[in-house]
Specification:
117 residues, alpha+beta, 4-stranded antiparallel sheet, two-stranded parallel ribbon, 28% helix
């Protein structure tokens, strides 16, 4: 059985995250998003099978129910971009919320894929 390689580039992922985040902010205009990193690229981190996202909200101070709604909208917007298909698990981009270190990270649960330059 041959397995096809699943890859996505950092720039493709940054673009997809930025586009999904911009669309999500329109649906959730009250969300207090942390600013993007210098240079216009969206900051994100990738932990296979756990979360791919960014420290978008300060915590405490942001309602976790709102963060969960934001994550669901974000994952839905992200799933519209075919470039992120390699990161889907069983064809789905599932939302994820993680709270630690004074930040609420909103993202999705990524599948097994190689991240390239």
């Amino acid at each position: 059985m041959t397995r096809s390689a699943k890859t996505i580039s950092v720039s493709q992922l940054q673009t997809a995250i930025k586009n999904a985040l911009d669309a999500t902010k329109k649906t959730h205009p009250d969300a207090k998003i942390q600013p993007a990193v210098a240079g216009g690229a969206e900051a994100f981190f990738y932990r296979p099978y756990w979360i791919c996202g960014g420290p978008f909200f300060p915590y405490p101070g942001y309602d976790l129910n709102k963060a969960t709604e934001f994550a669901a909208t974000f994952a839905g917007n992200l799933s519209k971009d075919p470039a992120v298909a390699p990161l889907a698990i069983d064809g789905k981009i599932e939302p994820a919320v993680y709270v630690t270190g004074g930040k609420v990270t909103v993202g999705f649960v990524p599948g097994e894929a190689s991240i390239t330059e």
